[in-house]
Amino acid sequence: MSPDSVTPGSARSAAEVNERIRALWLRSGGSLSAQERAEYELLVVEWAAAIRGQVVKAA
């Protein structure tokens, strides 16, 4: 997945995004390249948005 493929407001769940983050770290062997770092940062932002969405729905 390229960083460009992550769109704000994605319908992915926090669990799915978290799984992608874990897979990225496993693929990289624990040391991210510049491109992987950019992808990681976008995934973390997407994960945080998904978590906020879950909290709002639960409230």
Short synopsis of the structure:
The protein is mainly alpha-helical. It has helices spanning 14-28, 34-58. The termini are far apart.
What are the key terms here?
2 helices; disordered N terminus; elongated; 59 residues; mainly alpha
Number of strands: 0
The DSSP helix count reads: 2
H-E order: HH
Secondary-structure-based class equals mainly alpha
Unreliable sequence segments: 1-7
**DSSP helix fraction:** 55-70%
Radius of gyration: 12 Å
End-to-end C-alpha gap:
33 Å
What portion of the residues fall into strands of 2 or more residues? under 5%
Compute the average pLDDT. 85
In this structure, how is the largest beta sheet organized? none
Shape from CA axes?
Answer: elongated
Describe the overall structure.
The protein has 59 residues and is mainly α. The protein has two helices and no strands. Helix 1 (14-28) runs antiparallel to helix 2 (34-58). The protein is elongated, with a radius of gyration of 12 Å.
Q: Topology, please?
A:
Layout: H1 14-28, H2 34-58
Helix pairs in contact: 1-2
